[in-house]
Amino acid sequence: MSTARTDISSYLYEPPGPRGRRRILVGSVVSALALLGLLAAGLWQFGSHGQLDADKWLPFTDWAIWQYLLVGLVGTLSAAAIVAVLGSALGIVLALGRISRVRGIRWASTVYIEVARTVPVLLLIYLMLFGLPQLGVNLPTLWKLVIPLVFANAAVFAEIVRAGILSLPKGQHEAAISLGLRGHQAMRLVVLPQALRNVTPSLVSQLVSLLKDTSLGYIVAFTELLYRAQVLSAFNHLLIQTFLVVTLIYLVVNGSLSALAFRLQRPGRKRTPVAQPVPTLAATMPHAEFPGTAAEANTASRPGAVTPAAVDAHASTTTEDRRD
Amino acid sequence: MNLLGDNLGLLLEALGTTLLMAVVAGIGSLILGVLVTVARVSPIPLLRRAAFLYVQFFINVPLLALLILAVFALPDAGLILPLTPTAIIVLTVYEAAYVAEAVRSGVNTVGVGQIEASRALGLTLGQSLRLVVVPQALRAVVQPLGNVMIALAMNTALAAAVGVVELTSRVNKINLVYAQPIEIFTGAGLVYMAIALVIGLGTGWVERKVAIVR
């Protein structure tokens, strides 16, 4: 299944023969030239405006500048941590609300999720920043950033968790009930732990998106990476260099998180204690009309398919795309 | 409703900017995203690597940082365009990475048998991609692509932070004059929700249209 899922292109063409190899070589050379040309054009453009001069880059060998930016990174990470904790807690509550048997709760959670998913965070931040102070509500800077982000991210977390709960075989819940657990015990002790473990990759990717969202601290003047970059560039007038360096920092931090998500997503990871439903069951699961379940049905129909990974794929295709 | 009446023209103009950015960047990112996906499954290792790096870069860097880089920093290197086109270009290349991710997950759902069959019929790589793989892949990801488009529509608001006068920026300015934050921001929120609803309904319609009955 790993070959089937991760590398469809191996089916698109067989090992190339002499002619194919020649074509690939030509293609490689052409695309290499095109990419190099693009790079050269960019560098020439930068160079001709003096942006590659050593004295524009040398300041970044100074530890003090890095220290200044790292304080910003700490701000970014702590804001992200607060949003992650509050957002996922609220998200779990909302996910449970959305599948609740009480119609009012179900309705309220659904409305919340749909609203929070479709209102730009920046609008909420402006409300916090300019709107509420007019009404006499003036929160500390950190919370002007964190509250809108929690508001928006909770909805995304809720959808991820719900996908996890729905993708779990019904038998888990039924077995828990038949063992004498009450409904909420079954949810807390049996269903939720497995569901959360199954959607861990999606949760980690959501962390990446949330960490990116904290860059909105730039607008509320909260001390985070992008805001520090802005202050720094106003001071040293090295706009391009400063923002490129900051982009690189984001890339490294988020890249490590993404790599973690990818590793968790790999099939055959060690901790998959989930009962694996037989392929036919997986293909007829109630939400099979959901987007992305084509993947599920497809992988499930292949011999030796392992469903938890397909479940991950399901969860990530349905929810990951709703991030930012 | 004096507030609305006095500012209707400004608001409609701002809404127009928002919609323009969303539509142009939406179409652009769909095209670019599919091209990136094609590069990602192509037999040329260099292109695959480049497409992978492209996606990873834009998925890991905040849109706001890119917007600031493009609007405030790149003019120092002589790269300067009017404000709104710059924002549209940044949105396009940024969302294209998410489109590429979605389409690639769709490519992975195309049955191996389909590809083998198209090869057995003697289609070339280009033909089997164009006639067999991509059409099926796109059908499988209509809903995820709709979600990307909704995210894009929400992300157009970020252009306000670099000075584009679109809906968010305009309502903020109006609120500074009228000081009725709850009404004004709720109204703007409803407009964004309506945009998302239209995209959502549109995706649902397209999905029903192109669904493959298996």
Explain the overall architecture.
- Chain A: Belongs to the binding-protein-dependent transport system permease family.
- Chain A: Keywords: Cell membrane, Membrane, Transmembrane, Transmembrane helix, Transport.
- Chain A: InterPro entries: AA_ABC_transptr_permease_3TM, ArtM/GltK/GlnP/TcyL/YhdX-like, MetI-like, MetI-like_sf.
- Chain A: This is Amino acid ABC transporter permease.
- The complex is a heterodimer of chains A (324) and B (214).
- Chain A is built from 17 helices and no strands.
- With 324 residues, chain A is mainly alpha-helical.
- The longest helix of chain A is centred in the N-terminal third of the chain and has 36 residues.
- Chain A is flat, with a radius of gyration of 24 Å.
- The mean pLDDT of chain B is 90.
- In chain B, helix 4 packs antiparallel against helix 7.
- By secondary structure, chain B is mainly alpha-helical.
- The radius of gyration of chain B is 20 Å and the shape is flat.
- Chains A and B meet through helix 1, helix 2, helix 3, helix 6 and helix 7 of A and helix 2, helix 3, helix 4, helix 5 and helix 6 of B.
Key features of this structure:
heterodimer, A: 324 residues, mainly alpha, 17 helices, flat, disordered N terminus, disordered C terminus, B: 214 residues, 80% helix, transmembrane (chain A), transmembrane helix (chain A), cell membrane (chain A)
Helix-strand blueprint:
The complex is a heterodimer of chains A (324) and B (214).
Chain A: H1 2-6, H2 9-12, H3 18-48, H4 54-57, H5 63-98, H6 103-117, H7 121-134, H8 141-167, H9 170-178, H10 183-198, H11 200-213, H12 217-220, H13 225-236, H14 239-265, H15 279-283, H16 293-301, H17 307-319
Helix pairs in contact in A: 5-6, 5-8, 5-11, 5-13, 6-8, 7-8, 8-10, 8-11, 8-17, 9-10, 11-14, 13-14, 16-17
Chain B: H1 2-40, H2 45-60, H3 63-73, H4 83-107, H5 112-120, H6 125-140, H7 142-155, H8 167-178, H9 181-210
